[in-house]
Amino acid sequence: MTAKVYNFGAGPAMLPKPVMEKIQQEWLDYQGMGVSVIEISHRSSQFVEILNEAQSLFRELTGLPDNYRILFLHGGARMQFSALPMNLAGRTAGGRCLYFETGNFAQLAAKDAAAYATVDVVASSAASGFDRIPAYDPQALSTDASYVHLTSNNTLYGTRWHRFPSTGDVPLVADMTSEILSRKIDFTQFGVIYAGMQKNLGPSGMAMVIVREDLLGYAAPHTPLLLNYEQAAKDNSLTNTTNTFAVYTTKLVLEWLKEQGGLAAIEQRNEEKAALLYQVIDASDFYQSVAHPEHRSVMNVCFRLGDDTLEARFLEQAGAAGLYALKGHRSVGGLRASIYNPMPKAGVEALATFMHEFAAQNG
Ligand SMILES: Cc1ncc(COP(=O)(O)O)c(C=O)c1O
Fold first, then answer.
1. How far is the CA of 10 from the centre of ligand 1 (A)?
2. 262-283 vs 45-62: helix axis angle to the nearest 10?
3. Atom 5, ligand 1: which residue's CA is nearest?
4. Are 211 and 144 in the same domain?
5. What is the pLDDT of residues 54-100, one digit of tens each?
6. 241 and 272: one domain?
7. In the chain, fewer beta carbons within 10 Å around the N or the C end?
8. Does ligand 1 have an atom closer than 6 angstroms to the CB of 105?
9. Whether residue 2 has pLDDT greater than 70
10. Which residue is closest in CA terms to ligand 1's atom 2?
11. Tens digits of residue pLDDT in 6-50
């Protein structure tokens, strides 16, 4: 038996244990068919049932209204950085798209979009190392733009939008890759929401894209068929062979989330988990928070020790204690605990205890 390990990796991230066990149990024989779920046609009634069930569980958990479509698209979140402007920049004659620059993924989203649209950055926190969500002029948003884009949780810096800007008739678009389904959010504030699946939903390589129906039909003529939202909505995401394993796993994750008590319960648990770590960080000068306290994420807790040797020792000793993948992103440095929905409270408690002890021994 391998010793107990808690996986704090930012993504692909840990999945709920009961989900992994269910996959293992069904792996060779999906519901008495004598074949695996990954060996059946994406057009079989059994798979279409899985796909539809995943969509209806998502609606049930989030209260997503019927005028939004739920799509499963290839290429992870980053593919959406290009797909989004291809599908939506044409909504207005000027094709101007507004971006909040709150981290490297927000920057990449704007950079990729610039190949297909006129991109303007409305506000940036680059000057303070992306330690916060920047202040912005609300007047700058109520324009004739095709959409306004933001990254709701910034995975590398551990910041998040606590409240979202009001954009009037301009559709608000959110990259929710590192926080989808972690808290109750009124999805009707948004025109489009997308999320790479490898953190709170399932395996990597796919994105869930939620689009309001009135925003379908604006795709530029050069948009590849497989990136066209309207086509995907028409085909229920089965224009070609989808990643059936990813959709199946996501369905199991959504079932698990429902069993946990839904979003209100998971949100409370996530707040409690994050508070345990921020309390240790704030209790002494030994740890320094990367994110400004008012903008902190509950999914990615980023901190520093201000000393490379000490951080290397922290990682080595944490690893030996079964606390895995706590290294910060290479562009930010320091340490990061990603505590997505599946991370049990016991894992966070183990990390908080370790951090206390490490500070006492090395402070
Ligand atoms: C907020 C955010 N957006 C986009 C991405 C890129 O996702 P993918 O690798 O699925 O393209 C990530 C990956 O961690 C992310 O955290």
1. 10
2. 60
3. 77
4. yes
5. 999 999 999 999 999 999 999 999 999 999 999 999 999 999 999 99
6. no
7. N
8. yes
9. no
10. 177
11. 999 999 999 999 999 999 999 999 999 999 999 999 999 999 999
- How far apart are the CA of 177 and the centre of ligand 1, in A? 6
What separation in angstroms does the CA of 290 have from each of 199, 203, 285, 293?
Answer: 21, 28, 13, 9
CATH assignment at residue 338? 3.90.1150.10
For ligand 1, mutation pick of 74, 155, 160 (most atoms within 8 Å of CB): 155
Domain of 338, in residue numbers:
6-18+261-362
Residue 22's alpha-carbon distances to 197, 203, 347, in angstroms, are: 19, 15, 21
How many domains, in total, are found in the chain?
Answer: 2
Q: Is the pTM of this model over 0.90?
A: yes
Q: What tens digit of pLDDT does each residue of 268-312 get?
A: 999 999 999 999 999 989 999 999 999 999 999 999 999 999 999
Q: Is residue 76 within 6 Å of ligand 1 at its C-beta? A: yes
The rounded distance, in Å, linking the Cα atoms of 247 and 235 is 15
Q: Is 151 in the pocket of ligand 1 (CB under 6 A)?
A: yes
**How far does residue 105's CA lie from ligand 1's centre (Å)?**
7
Kindly state whether residues 296 and 165 are assigned to the same domain. Answer: no
Residue 48 one-letter amino acid: V
Cα 356 to averaged position of ligand 1 atoms, centre (Å): 31
C-beta of 178 in contact with ligand 1 (< 6 A)? yes
Identify the band that residue 3 occupies on the pLDDT scale cut at 50, 70 and 90: confident
- Please count the other Cβ atoms lying within 10 Å of the Cβ belonging to residue 144: 11
Ligand 1 close to Cβ of residue 342 (< 6 A) = no
